[in-house]
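Suppose you are handed a protein chain with no further information: no name, no annotation, nothing but its sequence. What can you learn? This example shows the usual starting point.
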Amino acid sequence: MAALAVPVLAVGLFAAPARAAGLTPVTSTLTSANPADDIPHAQNGDTKAFAEIGGTVYVGGSFTSVKAAADAGWTARNYLFAYDRATGALKTGFAPVLDGAVHALAVSPDGKLIVGGAFANVNGVSRKNLVELDPITGATVTSWVGRGDGGLVRRTIVVGNQLYLGGAFHWINGTQHSLLARLNASTGEIDPTFQIDASVARYSSELVWSLAVSPDHRTLVAVGNFTQVNGQARNQVVMVDLANTPAVANWSTQRYVAPCYNASFPFYARDVDFSDDGTYFVVIADGGRGDGAYCDAIARFETADRGAGIDATWVDYTGTDSVTSVEVTDNVVYVGGHFRWLNNANGSDTAGAGAINRYGLGALDPINGLPLVWNPTRSGAPSGTTAWGPIVWELWRGSTGLYAGFDSDGLGNEYHGRMGLFPLSGGRTVAATNAPSAASGYLYLSSSDGQATRVPFNGTTLGTPVSTTQPNLTAAGASFSIGNKLYWSKTDAGAPNGSYLDVSIFSGGSVGAPWVSSGYNDWFKPATMNGAFYLDGRMYYTRSGTNSLFYRYLEPDGYIVGCTEFTLPSTGLAWGSVRGMAWVNGKIVYGWTDGSLRSVPFNASAVDGAAAVQLAPAGGAVNWSSKTLFFATS
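A reasonable first move is to predict its three-dimensional structure. Written in structure tokens, the prediction is:
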């Protein structure tokens, strides 16, 4: 192998995400997209919260009546009701009386129901915005001393024996706490060691709208209408370290500082949730668009990151439609709201290049934020009911599936009054899929239609070339392997932009009959790629007339191409001379315009061309200057 001397070409970072490398595909478990038919309906208002105790499901909101799925008539139930999880029958013995909406539900360590919201009285007795109820009868647990002395209690999160509260209050249990507090979940007593006070609204009224606590109990993230926390600047999003005495963490982002263009949103960070392993959290937002702000967007952040000016690992924009709820579970990022598309950074109240139709509900791959194939839609409301409300108030993973609470009456093209359940039963598993990881295999390249050359390759040494017949591989351009599939550019006069990204099964050294990767990719021009490879949720490529290594996110589940192009930092490698690329055991192996074959180490963060070496010289048995170069294990 010979070291290469090439012209130095510095390529800067363009709109790249914060975390450039380190995420690998994960196996995701999706619920069914067909909502269960046997759960109750609510009428008027909305549903905002769910909880389970034993075989009973509790539902809170601003509704005024409910009915079991099989019932003809409605039963008056203001703000809170319960039903049997197995049968869907209403629990008529559970009949608390509240005079205002329920926003939050949680379960105490001893199996009682903790309720937060915007009420003044419960069961005829003053219990402002916070109460514990008997889960069988709905009677007030008078021995529980938790009291909301101020405004709305928007969130109640029980972690171990700790109850975290977020809302619009300034006093809890007679002690001063601004928007955040922590109680003993069993007794309701205030925890004096937790003094984290959020304050100073952007405009309108200050509040914490949502919060989440990591599974290891060491980190809290809260979002809402505030700009200071314990005197430190924290605009809409704050992280709190809980490991010792709770303190505002050395973590901040500027992405929720600028206003969105829609002034009707005093704040736009609406919900947050941690992954099941706690390594990351996702913040969702409404608001329109803003200068550098994550408005109308879903954004992943890494829990371990610390510092100022932290950017998201990835961002998925809707194209100026609201996202109002998120649930991260089973290696899936579920989102709900008033959006019509995802992967739509190029659209503004329209479907831009790359937009994926998702009507109010979606499921994203956690490593790149692209939509998975899960599209139930907020549709199916009968005439005379509410077809399309602005808010999905809650997505919540229960024991049998994903609950959804909203302000309309359609789900999965069926009638579902104000609530629904997407069951785990009937769902599917999306396997983790990546580039071939073997250290040795075969390099393939095509120089004419229906033919390909196969060359054994162990990462450093090339074997004897063999000609193979590939009748399905015609009009081919840049090609790359993902799992047992070959993705390849195919020139086609019938394509909207002259070429398609096709997909074929690749097995036993043969390219199967191709199909078009996705109708959502019609905007993309794969024929402009001079070479490509896939790794860890990204499609890397070079393009004609440029000297950069680009990448877009790519989702194998549905074959979706990301709408945003990024540039990887690079020095010392003239990418415009590359013809064909493959990733092999930590290196990019690439053809050159002179017919030689070269390689360079690759860590997904940057490329240093000074480390490139020549694997095969120009003028050898194989002309390696072919866009179709790819690596496979058979």
